[in-house]
Each structure stands twice: as C-alpha cells, then as structure tokens.
Amino acid sequence: MKRVVWLIQAALFYLFTLLIAALPHSLTVRIGKNIGRFLFNIIHSRREIALDNIRQALPFMRRHPSWTGTYESAEEIALATFMNLGISIVEVCRLYHGKGNDLIDSMVVHGLENFRHAREQGNGVLCVSGHCGNWELVSLSFKQHLNENVWAVARKQTNPYLNTIIEKMRMGYGNKVIYNKSALRPILSVLKDKGVIGMLTDQAVFEDNGALIEFLGRKAWANKAPVVIARKTGTPVISVFGYRDHDWNVLRFYPEYTLCGDRSESGVQQDTQALARYLEDFICAHPADWYWIHRRWKRAGEPI
Questions:
Q1: Which domains does the chain have, with CATH numbers?
Q2: 60, 122, 140, 259 — which has fewest CB within 10 A?
Q3: How many H-runs (helices) and E-runs (strands) does the chain carry?
Q4: Per-residue model confidence as pLDDT tens digits over 4-28
C-alpha cells in the first residue's frame, strides 16, 4: 500500500512540474508569487513557525550593520519569504524539464575570483551554503558559470520514486549527489580527487554532530562538519549564497575562511561560529531570502 501511495505522490508531483514548466517563462515571477501567497494562507503551521522565528530575530537584525530596513514587520518578511519560495518552485519545475538554461544564463555572479583563488590551491573546494534564494538553482549553476561539476550533499527523500525524480534533475545539469547518511567517506574521496563539494549547513543538528553557537541572537546547534572536514583535508572553505534582486537571481561567492588553528573542541566551536557569521550577515541583508520555515533553534535550550 505504501508503494502505491508513493507512486501516486510521485505521479502528481511530476504532472504538476510538467504543467508549470509548460507556462511561458515571462509568467514565472507572477505565478510564483501567487503560489507563495496561497501557501502562506493555507500552511498555517509553517507560517507560524516562520513568524515566530522572525519576530525573535528582528531585534538582533535591526541592530546589525547589514540590516537594510526594507521590511517593517515579521509579517512582511514571512510573506515575502513564501513568495520567494513560490518563485523557486516554478523555477525548479522548469529546471526539471530541461528549461532552466535561461534561468542559469541570466544569473548575476559576484565574487567569482574568490572561488577561483580557492580552486588554485589544488585541494578541491568546500562550498558552504544555506537554504537561501533558490538553493537548487545555485547548485545547478556551477557547471555553467564555473565549468565545475559539484557533488551536492543532500537528504534522501523517503519516497524513492520522488527521490528519483529530484535526483534526475540534479544530475541533469552536471551535478552529482552524496546523501547525507554516511556521507563522510564519499566526501573525503571527492576532495582527495580535487573535486568540489556543496553543503547546506543552516539547519539544526544533534549535539553529537554540532557546535553550540550564537545565531541571530539566540543559541543554536550548528553543523561542524565543514570545519572537521577542512581540518582533515586542508580543503579551502568558502561561503556561497543565492538571493533575488528584484526578478534576478544572484550568486555570490565570499572570500575563503581561514581556520583559527586551534584543533581542540573550543577551536571547532570558534570556526563553526565564524562560518555561521557569513550566513547571519547574509540574512540581515536579505531577510526574505532565507528559509525561516523550520525550527532552527530547537534542542539548544530554546522553546520548541
């Protein structure tokens, strides 16, 4: 019975992507925003999570040097976040059906020299990112803008048929996938071959896999894997984020982060905190481009 349900889910997902991809590219933003508004109004639990997260972060963000003051309230940021997600849904549908080249070609890229500098060191590159902008588009754009095939670390979907659909899209643009369960060995293998790894590290992790940091003014467990891997391999670490500037997708590479040199747990915590600051700065500058719709601060002494 479970397989039947999975097949139905995958079939409906495929038909939805086919329908959306068939629409004119010129309607992407308009339709995406309407999808986002619809989701904002019907997914009450996720909307409330986003609103709660934003309300608690707003005092910190308003004091931050990167804050632009574009939004006045948590409600404005939450709605804009959902609308950005809606646009991303439409874009991903186009990407899946091979209509994403126009999206990738039209991206604005900043800081490309930072990636090239890290690449020239000859130890591969570890790109650390978060659920920002259209993160799928960011990953898939590497082949076009950097002439690099990226190994993306991702979570495997419970529905195997749905996972096959998503995997096909990711690999159709030159990327390869490493699933996050038992991911360390394949990651090390790719870096040994001087490859490029992309990791989304902005969600809450368990204590065994994380370091306790300050994030947007609150305690949070952050993934320490990039720091551990970089120390083990000597691979340069750079932060990479995508965001929307009006109707354009922007990709920005930041300068390489230099590890502190302290190999103790305290040093791991220090480096993990420093990497989180890149994301923190980004969110304060682009608050509607981050995925507020998850419990980022759970298990860190914050109310769930």
A1: 2-289 (3.40.1130)
A2: 122
A3: 12, 9
A4: 888 888 899 889 999 999 989 889 9
SS3 state at 110 = strand
Nearest to 286 by CA among 81, 46, 31: 81
Q: CA–CA separation, 2 vs 7, rounded Å?
A: 9
Tokens of 262: 């302290």
Provide the whole-model pTM.
Answer: 0.93
pLDDT of 302 = 58
Model confidence at 175, in pLDDT bands (50, 70, 90)?
A: confident
8 A C-beta contact, residue 170 and residue 177:
yes
* Sheet with 125-129, side-by-side order of all strands: 108-110, 248-253, 237-245, 125-129, 196-200, 150-154, 176-179
| Euclidean distance between CA atoms 189 and 8, whole angstroms | 37
* Residue 249: φ, ψ to 5°: -90, 130
One DSSP character per residue, 239-302 reads: EEEEEEETTEEEEEEPPPBPP-S--SHHHHHHHHHHHHHHHHHHHHHSGGGB--SS-TTTTTTS
Return the residue matching tokens 């990039």: 226
* Amino acid identity, position 145: H
* 28-42 helix and 44-63 helix, angle to the nearest 10 degrees: 110
**Phi, psi at 301, each rounded to 5°:** 85, 5
CA 118 to chain centre: 20
User: Which tens digit of pLDDT belongs to each residue from 104-128?
Assistant: 999 999 999 999 999 999 889 999 9
Structure confidence at residue 157 (pLDDT): 86
Is residue 237 within 8 A of residue 257, CB to CB? The reply is: yes
177 and 154 Cβ atoms separated by less than 8 Å = yes
H/E stretch holding 168 reads helix 160-172
